[in-house]
Amino acid sequence: MDVLTETAIHHVLSMSEAIRALHAGYASYDGTDHHPPRTLLRVSEQDATFGVMPYYSTRDNLYIVKVVSHHVFNRRRGRKSINGLIIVQDGATGEVKAQFDAATITALRTGATAGLATDLLARKNSKTLAVIGTGDQAAAALDAVLCVRNIGRVAVYSRSKDNAGSFIDHATEKYGRRVVFHGCEDARAALCGADIVCTATTCAEPLFSADDVAQGVHVNAIGKHTPVSREFPLELVPRSILLVEDREAAIREAGGYHRHAISIPEMLQAEHREYQSQTTIFSSVGTAFQDACICVAILKKLQLLKT
User: Fold this and answer.
1) Total structural domains within the chain
2) Are residues 56 and 191 located together in one domain of the fold?
3) Mean pLDDT in the chain?
């Protein structure tokens, strides 16, 4: 069976459709699916992580597993940093229904979830966006935010000026005159005047200070988060509304400061527009549920599953 590649996946499911699929999935989630904690192996001398994420969808009767690795230094060698497969099996027969490129699904679902969080919490009149990081996740987050807000200006920062330049060139070609892109010398400069911030990096230390974030800004932090590393300063948390995909997963994988966070399903049940004038943070660790939502949406569009 062929693997659905990046080109095929993007041909079938747009970012807007991915955001809608996640919204519908979170809104109807009833807690009956099975999703044990992911298994992670970290190899510090290679700065690499290997992970296995199993999932069982009760509604669709599907087994879904992602086997993926993340090698931080691969980009310096001209290779993808995320590699792996997602395999979907029929729950009744075990038949393999599809195989997906894991890097593409990961970027698509991460970006789409950031888009959903932005739609829930960012001010409706947001016009400026700061993007910190220039990899596939950053590109997906940019695409998602542009789907839900009428952004006119995007500030881009990367520790590599070459990467920032390439990111801006590709984005300008894709979005044309609709958006003005410009590079910044540091993260603080990128945040100046931003209504929305997207961070998608592997930095172990905060990228900016709490004072750099103006009141009412929405932050999508979708990069590397562990109990000892994060992209945003903890000093920002007490004066912010903190949103997560899954509270238990966020506490387990990224730290106890998430214990008072609001999960996406909870936010969908709340008067979320009341939060749009406040400073908000979406702190993402990524979940198998998100992968499942996107894979199922693709299979339904391909008519491999009943709608």
Assistant:
1) 2
2) no
3) 95
